[in-house]
Amino acid sequence: MADIAQLLADRDALAIADVSADTQRAAEQFLYRQAELLDEKQWDEWLALFTDDGFYWMPAEEDQTEGDGQPNIFWEDQDLMLMRVARNEHPHAHSQAPHNRLCHVVSNVLVESEEPNGDLIVRSRFHCAEYLRYEVRNFTGKYRHYLRKTDDGFKIAVQRVDLVNREGPYEYVLQWWL
């Protein structure tokens, strides 16, 4: 995964691939579905969007090119994502009492590149509002996905999330994925 993380970090920020309308639509629908699953807390279905060796990566710095062995906000494989779900869904999880609510908006979906095997690198922008304990927190930023084409459709090999407000002060920590 380090190679893919490096690939996502090194991409041309303005690259746009000449892809078919079907490929563009498939990438958009995939990202919209991911947002819906997060908002509805459909954790099993959301985790199934990742390859078995997939990673969710939220770097601590904008120019960060590696996730493994570096300070990150998140650098999680399937096992760590499963552990986060179990911890947050536990009946005694004080941090989730009452449970939060999320609302994602994904836009500006652009396919940066399409590999000969059908894998895609896709970037997009997002806004996520989180409501917890009578407060709303807003997170914005950009996504970069390496989507691996499989027989079952696209799967996330690496999802990179660059927050606009990554160094902002928060009264409580991020519990869920943006």
List its traits:
single chain, 39% strand, Nuclear Transport Factor 2, Chain: A, 4 helices
What would your notes on this structure say?
The protein is built from 4 helices and 6 strands, in the order αααββαββββ. The protein is an alpha+beta fold. It has one domain: Nuclear Transport Factor 2, Chain: A (Roll). A hairpin with a 2-residue loop joins strand 4 (120-132) and strand 5 (135-150). It is globular and about 45 Å long. The relative contact order is 0.22. The mean pLDDT is 87.
Number of helices: 4
> What is the succession of H and E elements?
HHHEEHEEEE
Helical percentage: 10-25%
Strand order of the largest sheet: 2-1-6-5-4-3
As for the number of domains, it is 1
Shape: globular
Which regions contain 5 or more consecutive residues with pLDDT less than 50?
A: none
Topology:
Layout: H1 2-9, H2 21-39, H3 43-47, E1 50-59, E2 72-76, H4 78-89, E3 101-114, E4 120-132, E5 135-150, E6 153-163
Parallel strand pairs: 1-6
Antiparallel strand pairs: 1-2, 3-4, 4-5, 5-6
